[in-house]
Amino acid sequence: DLQPSPFSPLPTMAAGGSEKERKLVRCVTAVNAVIIVVSLVFLGVIVIGVVTAPKQAEVEGKDMDTTPTFSSLLPKAELDSELAKYVEVPFTSDLISAMPESEQTALRHLARAAEDMNELYISQIYEGSPAIAEALARQAVAEGEEVEPEMGSPVSGSSVLKSFWFYGGPWNETEEKFIDDAAHTVPSSRLPGGSLYPTTATKEELERWMGGLSGAEHDDATSFFTVIRKEGASFKSIPYSEEYASKLAGIAESLQKAADSTSDEGLKKYLEARAAAFFSNDYGESDYLWLGLNSSIDPTIGPYESYSDEHFAYKAFFEAYICVVRPKETEQLQELRGVLQYVEDNLPVSPSLRNPSLGAGAAIKVVDQVYSGGEARSGVQTIAFNLPNNATTTSKYGTKRVMMRNANLAKFDRILRPIAERLVEEEQLDLINFDAFFLHVLAHELMHGLGPHTVNVNCSNVVNCLDGKDVREVLAEHYSAIEEGKADISGLWAIQFLHDNPPNGEPLSLFSSGLGLDSFYVTFLASAFRSLRFGAKEAHAQGIAIQLQQLMEKGAVTRNETTNRYRVNLENMDTVKAAVEEITGMMMTIQANGDKAGAARLKADAVAAVEAVAGKDLEKLSDIPVDVRPVFALSPY
Questions:
Q1: First vs last C-alpha separation in the chain
Q2: pLDDT-based confidence at 458, cuts 50/70/90?
Q3: Are strands 318-325 and 363-374 parallel, antiparallel or unpaired?
Q4: 10 Å Cβ neighbour count for 101?
């Protein structure tokens, strides 16, 4: 009997059926045979493909990975030229070799924590950045480049990989895209809110949502330590401890290893508390312990600055500075801690805007930076900082000013002095002085803690009164430029004030070394051009543009149209001092009034005015580095 074909629903027929039936059977059998042959051929093609595809890929230099390939939109020579604007400088400390082995081991674990913070930071800037970093590292290895393990941060070669990590993502210092894939998935310019807000939400939508919140919900939305995500037609706040749980776990592990290594009990307690804060999202206790550190190692690690939140300046970005304390230099500056209330009581603003009780004193540390990570590693390098920024913490415990001496010295020698030789009148060049630069940077950091931090206005008959609100929240995206400008100019004012009005009639020792006030003013002028080169979108550059415009309008600084050089009007110091005092009062009053419109107008006018006056002069500095790029001797591996 004929057996039924698996391809045919026809029943089995006896051999003795009719002629018509036999023809039908022969026809079906032939069709089935053809189907079987075709199926076998098809299966053979699949098998051959599976066997030969890897070999073919090997011949073509490819693998079977479907991960997108990213490449530079700029030629290698152009990438190298742009990166060369940031000169490589060794960052280390002569104090490390004398430290006990326990502390050197702790340093290595802290460097690892800082290194791991790089990936966390770039994911805050753009959620697609970790995938880009992984792809670029894989491509670099395939091309024979040497890269560091895990993170793919380059040791040599690969201009595109070096540029990616230096800029902290696929956009350069002008926020233009220089890396993309074939599908053009990378946004054309840096996202103003990074990945901390929904990319599909407009700033206006977020403002309306935040404006409708109150109490704890509003505090969470505007918190340093939350991201905002879509929830149906609205939004919700998610704590960093939840959003970045997996990344923070690895960093916390390195902090715990450092805590286990150190023999300093204060450092151990801080590191353990900071590791716990990554899981609780409560940084108060660890900030308190950090402020009181008295160890040879001074690590600053966590979410701090909000410059990169161009929507509102609400959200903090992760960073790390691993530093070694310089005890002698630190001790020399401690006298300044005791004069801050005296300075606050004499600020050139209405007495009602002064704080009668600053509360906790300010700690001052002079350190060498030996490693960094996250936002601290990216782009323009910090030379000092005043932290924490959280108003709740600072009102209770105060802040700490950290001066990174090796970073200051590198910028002074490699950048500030060469700029002065091009743009400062020759007869004032001898006044350029590192100590004046360093002490003004310290004064800048001290003044961050002084002046109005909450809005102070009369609420009579005012709807939605701003009185009592945090200045940072009210000025939003304009806050950073105004605050940096205020700290700069008021730092200069404070130095002059303390010189002319010594507390208790006793001159401070910083003026007894023969360092004259003229050096502070002329060195400040040279440093202003250094900061302007950071770009019109950078907060410090915007702040210095405001100051320079005002100083020139008031006759304190002039430009020689013949030599195209600048000078401080030292022959008329009353004009100079009055200008500095007036600008200090103006910027603090903008903060006290919560004058967001005035801040925006001041910033825009100043940037345009300075570009018109000094734009061509800055072009003459093209062969001088814009900034430094640290090369660390300390290894995290």
A1: 77
A2: confident
A3: antiparallel
A4: 9
How many Å apart are CA 150 and CA 138, to the nearest integer? 11
The percentage of the chain sitting over the pLDDT mark of 90, rounded to a whole number, equals 75
State the helix-helix crossing angle for 517-532 and 539-553, rounded to 10 degrees. 130
Flag whether pLDDT at 610 surpasses 70. yes
450 token code pair: 């002084």
Place of tokens 């070096």: 162
| Bridge partners, residue 401, by sequence | 364, 386
- Helix, strand, coil shares of the chain, percent, nearest 5, are 55, 15, 35
- Which helix (H) or strand (E) is 88 found in, with range? strand 86-91
Residues 568, 556 contacting (CB under 8 angstroms): yes
Cβ contacts of 542 within 8 Å, gap of 6 or more: 480, 481, 484, 485, 536, 603, 606, 607
pLDDT, tens digit, for every residue of 166-201? 999 999 988 889 999 999 999 999 999 999 999 999
pTM of the model: 0.85
143 Cβ contact partners less than 8 Å away, ≥ 6 residues apart:
157, 158
Q: Name the residue among 78, 321, 124, 304 with its Cα closest to residue 228.
A: 124
HEC profile for 588-629? HHHHHHCCHHHHHHHHHHHHHHHHHHHHHHHHCCCCCCCEEE
Q: How many CA atoms lie within 13 A of 512 on its CB side?
A: 6
Query: CB–CB of 343/494 below 8 Å?
Result: yes
- DSSP string spanning 221-285? HT-TTEEEEEETTEEEEEEHHHHTHHHHHHHHHHHHHHHHH---HHHHHHHHHHHHHHHH---HH
Structure tokens at 326: 């310089």
Distance in angstroms (rounded) separating the CA atoms of residues 313 and 518: 36
Beta strands 226-231 and 234-239: pairing type?
antiparallel
